[in-house]
Amino acid sequence: MHPLSFSEYFEYIGGDKEEAYKKYAWLGGMPLVHMFKSEDMQMDYLESLFPEIYLKDIVEHYKIKNITAIEAVLDMLCSAVGSLTNPKRLSDALNSSLKLHTTNVSVKKYLDIFEDAFLFHKCRRYDVKGKQYIDTPDKYYAEDIGLRNARLGFKQQEMPHIMENIIYNELAARGLKVDVGVINTREIIDGKQKSIPREIDFVVTSRSRKCYIQSVYAMPDEKKRNIEVKPFTMTGDAFQQIIVRADTIGQWYDNDGILNINIIDFLLDKTIIT
């Protein structure tokens, strides 16, 4: 059972699509949130869920002793949605910044708990050309962006990461298989040949069909476009390629046959990927 998708939320709230999306990116899709009349009450409700329900149940059910450590891992995941991470990287950061003396084994346990509690999804990396999964690091996405925002006190609003998280949740809610695509290349940098991993935000599989998606908050110039498009050109196949953007209107195909589509239109049009 997922929180409301944007299309479900918009069907309920109605009004202007742009305003609805901004509110959804702020408060998320937990159904009870939108029963409250004022935004302050909605924010208060979301901020109460972690300490009063989720963390309380997790600590009791899993008999967690180091509450400070599991809360610190939670905060790090919320701060870094869509960023590559692994238990060792998190434990090293915790031990360095907070002197918690936790282990990567404990952190791995906390990550698994957050998945089991449907607070986060783990998205694995997939070697597009080698056709195999890559061991850590992985990416983690919050099940509900409103809960994520509330945990951070509604202060850390990096819209590119929030948009990427919302796209991931939409794909998961549609029952699609989603991985992070990786293409390793040999490139000349500063006169030396180096192995460079190029990333496709989402490799989406539906039955026998596959497509590639880049989440791009803004693509202001050709340099940025080249960065986003380059991984597509290296796949060596002809699967559908999509760039979901916040800075374009409607949907259209560019000269390379890549579908450029506004984030709101993508979320509302379930025929884009079937």
Explain the overall architecture.
The protein is of the alpha/beta class. It has one domain. It has helices at residues 6-13, 17-27, 39-62, 67-79, 87-97, 104-116, 145-151, 159-173, 222-233, 263-268; strands spanning 84-85, 120-127, 132-142, 177-189, 192-206, 209-216, 240-245, 251-253, 259-262. Strand 8 and strand 9 form a beta hairpin.
TL;DR?
The protein is of the alpha/beta class and 274 residues long. It has helices at 6-13, 17-27, 39-62, 67-79, 87-97, 104-116, 145-151, 159-173, 222-233, 263-268; strands at 84-85, 120-127, 132-142, 177-189, 192-206, 209-216, 240-245, 251-253, 259-262. The protein has one domain.
Number of strands: 9
The geometry reads as globular
**Major sheet, described briefly?**
9 strands, mixed
- Using only C-alpha atoms, the radius of gyration works out to 19 Å
- Identify the strand order in the major beta sheet: 1-3-2-4-5-6-7-9-8
Counting DSSP H or I runs of 4 or more residues, the number of helices is 10
| Ends apart, CA distance between termini | 20 Å
Mean pLDDT: 92
Helix and strand element order: HHHHEHHEEHHEEEHEEEH
Strand content: 25-35%
- What low-confidence regions span 5 or more consecutive residues with pLDDT below 50? none
State the helicity in percent bands.
40-55%
Helix/strand class: alpha/beta
What is the count of distinct domains?
A: 1
